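Risk register update: the risk of archive-format incompatibility is retired. Evidence:
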Amino acid sequence: TKTVSADTWETATLSDRLQILRTLRQAGNHHQATDLLQHTWATERSADKVKFISILSANLQIADEEILEAALDDKRKEVRRAAAKALAGLSESAFQRRMQERFIKRTKLVNSGKKEKLDIDIDIPPDADLTHDGIDLQKQWVKSGLKASRFLQIMAFLDPSFLEAHFKRTPAELLEIFIRSEWAVVLIQAV
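Archived output:
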């Protein structure tokens, strides 16, 4: 794949830029692709940013993290949501670590007689960091309330392999543990 200049990128149509980005990424030239995208990111329309993020999402690389993290600060909700969803798919991202830290802080595996269950502190106060990471503070995703909805969103962003590694349990064992929790409905919806 030949190198694409910043001038070519800037003067290309949206359709051409989408194809250039797709081609560069398929050829494994992820750094040039994200460099070009960063060059014009601030001037892109929101709908176009979502399209670019969609292309990045098809073959995520750690090199994409910087532009996706910047997209979390975009003024448009649809861009922030697309970026959060993409970052959730990048297991080594800072975004994923932040979600894991939130989850760990709010959960504890406890013995309930002969069986284990997951104890959850659902009291998640709204803050700017949650909003930054794509958590919708006002949308009630479950009947259990806004706090449960915030927890559900955090958990839904987690890489499933994190849960297995963190608890040192198989998916089937985790499901059994989740079912015994008082927040079973929320946990099952999240996974």
